[in-house]
Amino acid sequence: MVKKLLAAGMICLIFCVSQAVAAENVVIKGSTTVLPVAQAALEANMKTHPGINISLSGGGSGDGIKALVDKSTDIANSSREIKDKEITLAKEKGVSPVAHTIAIDALTPIVHPKNKVNGLTIDQLSQIYQGKITNWKEVGGDNLQIIIVSRDSSSGTFESWGHLVLNNAKVTPKAQLQASSGAVVQAVSKNRYAIGYVGIGYIDKAVKGLTVNGIPASAKTALSKEYPIARPLYMYTNGQPEGVVADFIKFVLSPAGQKLVVKEGFIPIIGEVKEKPLKKGKR
């Protein structure tokens, strides 16, 4: 299993079987949050489906959905729901987006491990990201300026954070925008003044996850909806999938596929694996 994810905004991995006489092609684009799950599922699925060429790339939920609308991808990975205006545009182009919920994610604020702050409230996070709280001492930390790290606007994670935490208020223009979740982790791990946010599957020893409203991010708290910033993760297709695309979606939603969701640090949606311990991915 390849565990290393690049921190660049576009991650492109192409898996091919050159011996195939009449290879079938599947294109998957979109969310970098969903990317580790898609990559793990792809690698496992390829072992049982030789003769299929599958390309997988990141770039953000918005890019994935745009590619679905433009008919340049078979599957659009997304960490947010498709917007009404995107559905309208899709229908104008003869595309009927269908959502497949493949996992649950707990959006988690992260800081440098040396930061003594262990938790923040939704209101504190909102004020920090709007630029109204600017020093860690205002929230129980050291007398240090807060460096704000955020995903860029093409990211579904950015939009989920804006909706669930900022109540659609604008992020301060002083925020350092990153093109991928891996880049957010990297930026925060190198700056003890920084704060960022990522899907729970991206947290490793290089950063520290904070509680929100006193609630830790976990499979249990996300599934019970006790954790305030949990969200579904999606794979979108044009209509009900068929053939090899349907096979891939079915695998992701199977017990074997959902075990990979757990292995990558996210939260499964099917009963057979819900109660298993959450193992955060190390990247």
Description:
With 283 residues, the chain is an alpha/beta fold. The protein folds into 2 domains: 12-105 and 232-274, Periplasmic binding protein-like II (D-Maltodextrin-Binding Protein, domain 2, 3-Layer(aba) Sandwich), CATH 3.40.190; 106-223, D-Maltodextrin-Binding Protein, domain 2. The chain is built from 10 helices and 13 strands. The protein has helices spanning 35-48, 61-69, 84-92, 122-129, 156-164, 181-189, 219-223, 243-252, 255-263, 271-274; strands spanning 12-15, 24-30, 52-59, 75-78, 97-106, 108-111, 119-120, 147-151, 176-178, 194-198, 208-209, 211-212, 230-238. β8, α5 and β9 form a beta-alpha-beta unit. α2 (61-69) packs parallel to α3. The longest helix has 14 residues, at 35-48.
